[in-house]
Amino acid sequence: MATENKNLSEYDKNTIPNAKDFRFGIVVSEWNDTITEGLYNGAFDALVDCDVPAQQIIRWNVPGSFELIYGAKKMLQTQNVDAVIVIGCVIQGETKHFDFVCEGVTQGIKDLNVQTDIPVIFCVLTDNNMQQSIDRSGGVHGNKGTEAAIAAIKMAYIRQQASIAHAYNQPLLTSGALQIEDSPRKIENE
Ligand SMILES: Nc1c(NC[C@H](O)[C@H](O)[C@H](O)CO)[nH]c(=O)[nH]c1=O
Ligand SMILES: CC(=O)[C@@H](O)COP(=O)(O)O
Protein backbone atom coordinates (compact mmCIF):
# COMPACT_ATOMS: atom_id res chain seq x y z
CA MET A 1 0.00 0.00 0.00
CA ALA A 2 1.52 3.30 -1.03
CA THR A 3 1.42 6.32 1.24
CA GLU A 4 -1.19 7.90 -1.02
CA ASN A 5 -3.60 5.19 0.11
CA LYS A 6 -2.91 5.62 3.83
CA ASN A 7 -2.89 8.63 6.13
CA LEU A 8 0.40 8.60 8.04
CA SER A 9 -1.11 10.44 11.00
CA GLU A 10 -3.89 8.00 11.78
CA TYR A 11 -3.56 5.79 14.87
CA ASP A 12 -5.85 4.08 17.35
CA LYS A 13 -4.74 4.82 20.91
CA ASN A 14 -6.51 1.62 22.01
CA THR A 15 -3.90 -0.40 20.14
CA ILE A 16 -0.91 1.42 21.60
CA PRO A 17 0.89 0.17 24.71
CA ASN A 18 1.31 2.29 27.84
CA ALA A 19 4.25 4.58 27.05
CA LYS A 20 4.33 6.82 30.15
CA ASP A 21 7.54 5.28 31.50
CA PHE A 22 9.42 5.12 28.19
CA ARG A 23 12.19 7.57 27.23
CA PHE A 24 12.68 8.52 23.57
CA GLY A 25 15.59 10.05 21.68
CA ILE A 26 14.91 11.98 18.48
CA VAL A 27 17.79 12.85 16.14
CA VAL A 28 16.83 15.52 13.59
CA SER A 29 18.64 16.42 10.35
CA GLU A 30 18.99 20.15 9.62
CA TRP A 31 18.89 19.64 5.83
CA ASN A 32 15.42 20.66 4.54
CA ASP A 33 14.66 21.87 8.05
CA THR A 34 11.20 23.22 7.18
CA ILE A 35 10.27 19.60 6.50
CA THR A 36 12.22 17.99 9.34
CA GLU A 37 10.76 20.43 11.86
CA GLY A 38 7.29 19.37 10.73
CA LEU A 39 8.23 15.72 11.09
CA TYR A 40 9.67 16.38 14.56
CA ASN A 41 6.51 18.19 15.65
CA GLY A 42 4.42 15.27 14.44
CA ALA A 43 6.56 12.80 16.37
CA PHE A 44 6.74 14.91 19.55
CA ASP A 45 3.02 15.62 19.58
CA ALA A 46 2.14 11.95 19.08
CA LEU A 47 4.43 10.83 21.90
CA VAL A 48 2.89 13.40 24.28
CA ASP A 49 -0.59 12.40 23.10
CA CYS A 50 0.32 8.85 24.13
CA ASP A 51 1.20 10.07 27.63
CA VAL A 52 4.98 10.32 27.26
CA PRO A 53 6.10 13.23 29.48
CA ALA A 54 7.90 15.92 27.46
CA GLN A 55 10.91 15.65 29.79
CA GLN A 56 11.32 12.04 28.67
CA ILE A 57 11.92 13.10 25.06
CA ILE A 58 15.52 14.04 24.13
CA ARG A 59 16.29 15.91 20.90
CA TRP A 60 19.64 16.19 19.12
CA ASN A 61 20.26 17.94 15.77
CA VAL A 62 22.74 16.77 13.11
CA PRO A 63 23.78 18.51 9.85
CA GLY A 64 22.25 16.08 7.34
CA SER A 65 20.56 12.72 6.99
CA PHE A 66 23.85 10.89 6.57
CA GLU A 67 24.83 12.07 10.07
CA LEU A 68 21.68 10.52 11.53
CA ILE A 69 23.60 7.24 11.75
CA TYR A 70 26.35 8.57 14.02
CA GLY A 71 23.92 10.75 15.96
CA ALA A 72 21.65 7.80 16.69
CA LYS A 73 24.61 5.61 17.63
CA LYS A 74 25.88 8.15 20.18
CA MET A 75 22.36 8.80 21.43
CA LEU A 76 21.72 5.16 22.26
CA GLN A 77 25.23 4.67 23.64
CA THR A 78 25.11 7.63 26.04
CA GLN A 79 21.46 8.33 26.84
CA ASN A 80 19.01 6.17 28.77
CA VAL A 81 16.43 5.76 26.01
CA ASP A 82 14.02 2.96 25.09
CA ALA A 83 13.93 3.84 21.38
CA VAL A 84 15.46 6.38 19.00
CA ILE A 85 13.68 8.08 16.09
CA VAL A 86 15.86 9.48 13.29
CA ILE A 87 14.25 12.26 11.22
CA GLY A 88 15.49 13.41 7.83
CA CYS A 89 14.35 14.59 4.43
CA VAL A 90 16.36 13.66 1.35
CA ILE A 91 15.20 15.21 -1.93
CA GLN A 92 16.45 14.24 -5.37
CA GLY A 93 18.83 16.80 -6.90
CA GLU A 94 20.73 16.89 -10.18
CA THR A 95 23.18 14.12 -9.34
CA LYS A 96 23.34 10.59 -7.98
CA HIS A 97 24.17 11.93 -4.51
CA PHE A 98 20.53 11.31 -3.55
CA ASP A 99 20.98 7.60 -4.18
CA PHE A 100 24.10 7.33 -2.05
CA VAL A 101 22.72 9.34 0.84
CA CYS A 102 19.47 7.35 0.89
CA GLU A 103 21.21 4.00 0.61
CA GLY A 104 23.82 4.95 3.18
CA VAL A 105 21.30 6.11 5.78
CA THR A 106 19.07 3.11 5.17
CA GLN A 107 21.91 0.65 5.62
CA GLY A 108 23.37 2.55 8.57
CA ILE A 109 20.10 2.63 10.50
CA LYS A 110 19.47 -1.02 9.64
CA ASP A 111 22.90 -1.86 11.03
CA LEU A 112 22.12 -0.08 14.32
CA ASN A 113 18.94 -2.16 14.66
CA VAL A 114 20.95 -5.32 14.08
CA GLN A 115 23.97 -4.46 16.21
CA THR A 116 22.36 -2.76 19.22
CA ASP A 117 19.50 -3.55 21.61
CA ILE A 118 17.68 -0.23 21.16
CA PRO A 119 15.15 0.07 18.33
CA VAL A 120 15.96 2.87 15.87
CA ILE A 121 12.95 4.08 13.89
CA PHE A 122 13.50 5.24 10.31
CA CYS A 123 11.67 8.53 9.75
CA VAL A 124 13.57 9.65 6.67
CA LEU A 125 11.68 10.97 3.66
CA THR A 126 13.32 10.06 0.34
CA ASP A 127 11.34 12.14 -2.12
CA ASN A 128 11.51 13.20 -5.74
CA ASN A 129 10.56 16.78 -4.96
CA MET A 130 9.68 19.19 -2.15
CA GLN A 131 5.94 18.82 -2.68
CA GLN A 132 6.11 15.12 -1.88
CA SER A 133 7.94 16.01 1.33
CA ILE A 134 5.38 18.66 2.24
CA ASP A 135 2.59 16.16 1.65
CA ARG A 136 4.19 13.66 4.08
CA SER A 137 5.20 16.03 6.89
CA GLY A 138 1.76 17.29 7.89
CA GLY A 139 0.21 17.68 4.47
CA VAL A 140 -2.40 15.72 2.53
CA HIS A 141 -0.82 12.35 3.37
CA GLY A 142 -0.42 13.10 7.05
CA ASN A 143 2.81 13.18 9.02
CA LYS A 144 5.49 10.48 8.88
CA GLY A 145 6.75 11.78 12.22
CA THR A 146 3.49 10.70 13.80
CA GLU A 147 3.81 7.27 12.24
CA ALA A 148 7.39 7.01 13.51
CA ALA A 149 6.40 7.93 17.07
CA ILE A 150 3.78 5.18 17.18
CA ALA A 151 6.29 2.69 15.78
CA ALA A 152 8.79 3.79 18.44
CA ILE A 153 6.30 3.14 21.26
CA LYS A 154 5.38 -0.28 19.89
CA MET A 155 9.01 -1.33 19.44
CA ALA A 156 10.01 -0.06 22.88
CA TYR A 157 7.19 -2.17 24.30
CA ILE A 158 8.30 -5.28 22.42
CA ARG A 159 11.84 -4.74 23.71
CA GLN A 160 10.54 -4.37 27.28
CA GLN A 161 8.27 -7.41 27.17
CA ALA A 162 10.84 -9.58 25.42
CA SER A 163 13.43 -8.78 28.09
CA ILE A 164 10.95 -9.64 30.87
CA ALA A 165 10.00 -12.87 29.14
CA HIS A 166 13.65 -13.76 28.70
CA ALA A 167 14.46 -12.98 32.32
CA TYR A 168 11.69 -15.31 33.52
CA ASN A 169 12.24 -17.85 30.78
CA GLN A 170 8.65 -17.35 29.57
CA PRO A 171 7.37 -17.41 25.99
CA LEU A 172 5.97 -14.10 24.71
CA LEU A 173 2.62 -14.32 22.93
CA THR A 174 2.24 -12.47 19.64
CA SER A 175 -0.12 -10.13 21.46
CA GLY A 176 2.77 -9.17 23.71
CA ALA A 177 1.12 -10.86 26.69
CA LEU A 178 3.14 -13.45 28.56
CA GLN A 179 2.19 -17.13 28.31
CA ILE A 180 1.12 -18.14 31.82
CA GLU A 181 -1.29 -16.66 34.38
CA ASP A 182 1.29 -16.00 37.06
CA SER A 183 3.41 -14.27 34.47
CA PRO A 184 6.24 -12.00 35.49
CA ARG A 185 4.12 -9.02 34.50
CA LYS A 186 1.54 -10.17 37.09
CA ILE A 187 4.32 -10.73 39.58
CA GLU A 188 5.82 -7.36 38.58
CA ASN A 189 2.51 -5.61 39.26
CA GLU A 190 1.89 -7.28 42.61
N1 LIG B 1 21.05 16.54 -0.20
C1 LIG B 1 20.64 16.23 1.07
C2 LIG B 1 21.53 15.92 2.08
N2 LIG B 1 22.88 15.93 1.84
C3 LIG B 1 23.84 16.05 2.90
C4 LIG B 1 24.21 14.70 3.53
O1 LIG B 1 23.13 14.17 4.29
C5 LIG B 1 25.40 14.89 4.47
O2 LIG B 1 25.04 15.80 5.49
C6 LIG B 1 26.62 15.40 3.74
O3 LIG B 1 26.90 14.54 2.65
C7 LIG B 1 27.84 15.48 4.69
O4 LIG B 1 28.10 14.20 5.19
N3 LIG B 1 21.09 15.59 3.31
C8 LIG B 1 19.75 15.55 3.59
O5 LIG B 1 19.35 15.25 4.73
N4 LIG B 1 18.86 15.82 2.61
C9 LIG B 1 19.25 16.17 1.35
O6 LIG B 1 18.37 16.40 0.46
C1 LIG C 1 20.34 14.29 -1.80
C2 LIG C 1 21.35 15.30 -2.18
O1 LIG C 1 22.47 15.30 -1.70
C3 LIG C 1 20.98 16.21 -3.27
O2 LIG C 1 19.79 16.89 -2.90
C4 LIG C 1 22.09 17.20 -3.58
O3 LIG C 1 21.70 17.85 -4.78
P1 LIG C 1 22.59 17.63 -6.11
O4 LIG C 1 22.45 16.18 -6.48
O5 LIG C 1 21.97 18.55 -7.16
O6 LIG C 1 24.01 18.00 -5.77
From TrEMBL:
Q: Does the keyword Transferase apply?
A: yes
What's the EC number here? 2.5.1.78
Which Pfam family is one of those matched by this entry?
DMRL_synthase
A GO CC term? Answer: riboflavin synthase complex
This protein's UniProt keywords: Riboflavin biosynthesis, Transferase
Superkingdom of the source? Bacteria
- Record-annotated residues binding (2S)-2-hydroxy-3-oxobutyl phosphate? E94, T95, R136
Give the record's pathway.
Cofactor biosynthesis; riboflavin biosynthesis; riboflavin from 2-hydroxy-3-oxobutyl phosphate and 5-amino-6-(D-ribitylamino)uracil: step 1/2
Give me the residues that bind 5-amino-6-(D-ribitylamino)uracil, please. W31, S65, F66, E67, C89, V90, I91, F122
Under catalytic activity, the entry for this protein gives: (2S)-2-hydroxy-3-oxobutyl phosphate + 5-amino-6-(D-ribitylamino)uracil = 6,7-dimethyl-8-(1-D-ribityl)lumazine + phosphate + 2 H2O + H(+)
Report the active site residues: H97
Q: Which GO terms describe its biological process?
A: riboflavin biosynthetic process
Molecular function terms, GO-annotated: 6,7-dimethyl-8-ribityllumazine synthase activity
Assigned protein family: Belongs to the DMRL synthase family.
Q: What does this protein do?
A: Catalyzes the formation of 6,7-dimethyl-8-ribityllumazine by condensation of 5-amino-6-(D-ribitylamino)uracil with 3,4-dihydroxy-2-butanone 4-phosphate. This is the penultimate step in the biosynthesis of riboflavin.
Q: What is this protein called?
A: 6,7-dimethyl-8-ribityllumazine synthase
- Phylogenetic placement of the source organism: Bacteria, Pseudomonadati, Bacteroidota, Flavobacteriia, Flavobacteriales
